[in-house]
Amino acid sequence: MSPAARKGIRHRMLLFRQAALDRIARLTDVPEPDLQRFRRELKASNLPDLLLQRGAGVAFTRELPQGALLYLVVRAARPGRVVETGVRPGYSTAWILAALDANGEGELTSLGPGPVAGRSSSVGNVGVGQFVAPSLRSRWTLALGNSEDRLREILSGSSGVDLFFYDNGPDAARARFELKAAWEALTRRGILLAHHVDANAAWADFCRAQGMPPQLLDPGPPPLGALRVSL
Q: What's the pLDDT tens digit per position in 50-86?
């Protein structure tokens, strides 16, 4: 990859809309100056370069262009316990772990591997956890299996879950199961994130069940939904 191409992908990894920054401020009750500080911190970090070194190219910035948003949400919310589903190469995982590392606290459990259906071959052929550098793994637990078999066990515990990220493919039944199970496990100020919320009606139906229209953190594409337990 040429230096110009690397620079272009790195720039793309760090892009997001101002409106999304405003939504993160409302979602986490963290003022925008703090979010701007986290953003400058991220721009100065080596995370995009680490991801590039481990094989994350343009296909991943298309599939999950909100990596920087995940980082900012985690930095702002300072979750103690994070769970994500659908992990495969670990692109979103790396952003979350980098933010936990910057916070100096918190643990992530990732349930996978996620589905490859509908993904480009460059995405589907990457190994599970490939993008998570050794320097980011001390706060990470990778659990393998189906969400129907493992998720409730992972979510259990008296401390609850502070942040849940659904990224487990377009199957509507799976999405409904995971969103419901995660919502029940979230702490009082817990945050629920869901990727590709346009894939089926599960997210829209879930938000309406909470008495709200479908909530978006970023319209994408692909759209990223976000909802906090106590607003």
A: 999 998 888 878 777 899 999 999 999 999 999 999 9
State the Cα angle at 61 between 58 and 67, rounded to 5°. 150
Query: What domain range is 37 assigned to?
Result: 3-228
Question: Rounded CA gap, 72 and 50, in Å?
Answer: 18
Indicate the angle between helix axes 91-103 and 67-77, nearest 10 degrees: 30
Q: What is the DSSP string of 135-177?
A: GGGGGEEEEES-HHHHHHHHH-STT-EEEEEE-S-S-HHHHHH
Number of domains, the chain: 1
Q: Work out the average pLDDT over 157-171.
A: 91
Calculate what percentage of the chain has a pLDDT beyond 90: 72
Q: Which helix H or strand E contains 180, and what residues bound it?
A: helix 172-185
pTM greater than the 0.90 cutoff: yes
Here the CATH number for the domain that contains residue 79 is 3.40.50.150
Question: For the CA atoms of the chain, what is the radius of gyration?
Answer: 16
Q: Which of 92, 88, 141 is nearest to 112 (CA)?
A: 88
Q: Rounded CA gap, 227 and 231, in Å?
A: 9
